[in-house]
């Protein structure tokens, strides 16, 4: 905890938003390419059905494997470890099938780690609508996405203030707040990660419509410096509170509400720069 670089690992939960950003980017680019920028809603049902079938099939296979655990082994602590998981899957398997398991407490759901898939599916459901609006009016589409991003930040700030939560999940052990509350309210809900997803939608939309972008060296330099600064700020911004000092609730709410978006902005520039040939040596790394 004393070394500054430790916060890079302690506050690494923001890294999950890279996935939501890339998911939004991929969905936007895929839908736009298949539709040639026209009639996006016509392809939407087929796209959503295909996505849901893959989502559901993988859940069914894994849940089936879990239900077979009783005949696969035994041991002195077998029941202590397996029984709770088995009970949850027998009683609440349907939460996973309908992609709503992230609305329930994780210790009562089957395969709690699949909250990510359910959360992502909620965003996939609205992605055709967002792209349809963008295809009709770029200005209105950008405005709608920005409103969703702003609404997400406001929601996170309000949840943080109302529940006296710390600024990030990694620092729950420095507070008296139960980790289950932080996990349930500030990590596994769609509103926690919708901002990076919408940013990915906008980035994918831009890339799909612009095959080439010319930038000055100064602009590229500023972009890279800003991106690195954004990511380092998110990673190391809580270093001063490593000994358990209480952050003011207003600051805690601000950090909680924007740090995922700031992280996604940094990653967005990296994707943008590398896509248009401004990645330099980073292209070899990424």
UniProtKB/TrEMBL annotation:
Keyword Transmembrane helix attributed: yes
Record keyword Lipid metabolism present: no
Residue span, Acyltransferase domain: 10-274
Residue spans crossing the bilayer: 6-27, 51-72, 115-135, 142-161, 190-208, 220-241, 261-279
A Pfam family per the record: Acyl_transf_3
GO molecular function, one term: acyltransferase activity, transferring groups other than amino-acyl groups
Keyword line: Membrane, Transmembrane, Transmembrane helix
Protein name: Acyltransferase 3 domain-containing protein
């Amino acid at each position: 905890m004393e070394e500054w670089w430790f916060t890079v690992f302690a506050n690494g939960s923001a890294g999950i938003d890279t996935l939501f950003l890339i998911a939004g980017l991929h969905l936007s680019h895929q839908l736009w390419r298949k539709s040639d920028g026209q009639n996006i809603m016509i392809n939407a049902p087929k796209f959503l059905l295909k996505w849901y079938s893959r989502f559901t099939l993988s859940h069914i296979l894994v849940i089936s494997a879990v239900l077979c655990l009783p005949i696969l082994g035994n041991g002195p602590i077998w029941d202590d470890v397996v029984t709770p998981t088995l009970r949850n899957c027998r009683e609440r398997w349907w939460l996973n099938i309908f992609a709503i398991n992230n609305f329930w407490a994780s210790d009562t759901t089957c395969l709690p780690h699949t909250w990510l898939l359910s959360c992502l599916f909620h965003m996939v459901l609205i992605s055709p609508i967002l792209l349809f609006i963008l295809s009709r009016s770029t200005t209105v589409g950008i405005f709608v996405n920005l409103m969703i991003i702003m609404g997400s930040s406001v929601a996170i700030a309000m949840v943080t203030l109302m529940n006296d939560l710390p600024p990030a999940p990694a620092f729950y052990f420095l507070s008296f707040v139960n980790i289950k509350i932080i996990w349930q309210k500030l990590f596994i809900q769609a509103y926690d990660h919708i901002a990076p997803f919408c940013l990915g939608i906008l980035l994918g939309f831009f890339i799909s419509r612009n095959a080439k972008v010319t930038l000055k060296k100064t602009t590229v330099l500023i972009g890279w410096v800003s991106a690195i600064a954004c990511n380092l700020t998110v990673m190391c911004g809580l270093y001063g509170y490593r000994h358990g000092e209480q952050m003011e609730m207003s600051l805690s709410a601000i950090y909680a509400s924007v740090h995922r978006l700031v992280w996604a902005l940094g990653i967005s520039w990296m994707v943008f720069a590398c896509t248009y040939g401004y990645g330099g040596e980073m292209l070899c790394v990424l």
